[in-house]
Structure formats: C-alpha cells, structure tokens
C-alpha cells in the first residue's frame, strides 16, 4: 500500500468517524450518482440493454447513478486466467442495477466481490443422507454466496446479453439471490416493505411454485424456466429473470406472480416496449 493510498484510507476513516458511517456512506453515494455519466457508457447501455430507450427519464437517471455506485463499491476479480475488462464490469453492474430501480438504495449490502470465470467452473458439492456424506464435482455457471461473493461464468453473461428475451440471464438470476439472502436466508423471500406484504407474497409464491412443479411433472410447457422448480429460492430467481426478460408473457400467464414482482421491484417492464 502506497503512502498516498494509506493517507486516503485514514482520511476516509476519520470522516466516517466524525459524520457517522451511514451518513458518510449516503453522502459518498450521492456524489457518485451526481457524476456525469460517460458517453461511452451510455452507448454500451443502448447496445446491451434493449429496454433502456423505453425507460422513463427518471428510471434512466436512477440506473446511471446506481451503476456508478456499484462500480465504485464492488471489486471484480478474474478467475481461471480471465482478464477482466472495463466493459465486463460495466455490463454486470448495469444488469444488476436494474434490480435496484425501486430506490431501496441498498446496493446488495453483503456483496463485496464479483468473481468472473471464462466459462463453466467446477466446485466440490457436499450432501448428506443420514450419516453418509457424499461429495462430487459439479459444473457451475454462476452462484451467489450469502457471505460476500457472486460468481459468474462470462460466456453465460454473453449468452444472456445476446438473447435478452429468452428468460435466462445469469446476472439477473444470481443478483436476485443476493436480494433473497439479505436477511441471511435463501428461501425465496426477500426483504419486503411491510409485514402485510409477506402474507400475500407467501400465498402467491407458494401457489405459483407448486403449479410450476406440477406442470414440469406433467411435461407441459411453461413460461418460467423449469429450473425454478428446484426450490423456492430458485423459483424467485427464475421468476425475476422472466419478469425482466419476458414480462408480457409472465403478465398474461401468471398475473398474480407478475403483480408481486411488480410491487417488489416497483417496475412495470411489460410497458417498456410501449414507450413511456
């Protein structure tokens, strides 16, 4: 650590101590959101987010501000020999920031680092049956840890950006898990606005999850990806992907589910293609 960086760190700590950390953090984020948005970033947004031109002016401004905060607060680490580029960081930050447009401004508080592999990566998975422990090697395309990490396979990120309306987007999926994990549990229930919201959420999500499981068993086509039938946590992540990528189909086939996600995200993506 250089003397200049060390001095800057000490100054930041001193400012935080004087102002109080929450106040200091809020002020830092306000300054980041107020910074001019680089022209090259705007061109990248228009290239990779097909709904961007249909966002309202306030939504575009919020998205730009959230991206700048995200890039400043999270570190990106290349794994498996991958060299992380500024464009990679920006694409991940932009898609993840779509989930923050409801102005909660929490910025995935547990998340510190985004690990990026070139493609599918291998992990050791341990399961137990009674007293017997099983360990196996499995390939992963992405995962969200409830501690401080999101892991992404870059080729899957690229696939999601090329096929935006297929209902599959690893960034949306894993960052939905981050929202779910903010309370320390991954069970398909993110932090909601009020106690009464939890009752409606549980009723709708349970019914929709069970219906998806039943349709999968019956071999019927579904709007939601079949991976959502894995468990309630995966159902919420898959529903989030569908909400942003296939909103009209979700609204038509699952209006109650769409309504819950619309209330949670404070967005109505089914109208984006129709203009402001």
Topology:
Elements: H1 3-19, H2 21-34, H3 39-48, H4 57-73, E1 75-78, H5 86-98, E2 113-117, E3 121-129, E4 132-140, E5 142-144, E6 149-153, H6 154-162, H7 170-180, H8 195-218, H9 232-245, H10 247-253, H11 255-265
Q: What does the model show?
A:
The chain has 276 residues and is of the alpha/beta class. The chain folds into two domains: 13-186, Orthogonal Bundle (Cyclin A, domain 1); 190-276, 3-Layer(aba) Sandwich (Collagenase (Catalytic Domain)), CATH 3.40.390.10. The chain contains eleven helices and six strands. Strand 1, helix 5 and strand 2 form a beta-alpha-beta unit.
What percentage of amino acids are in beta strands? 5-15%
* CATH architecture tag of the largest domain: Orthogonal Bundle
Radius of gyration, rounded?
Answer: 20 Å
Number of helices: 11
CATH topology of the largest domain: Cyclin A, domain 1
Q: Could you describe the largest sheet, including whether it forms a barrel? A: 4 strands, mixed
Indicate the structural class.
alpha/beta
Order of helices and strands: HHHHEHEEEEEHHHHHH
Tally of strands: 6
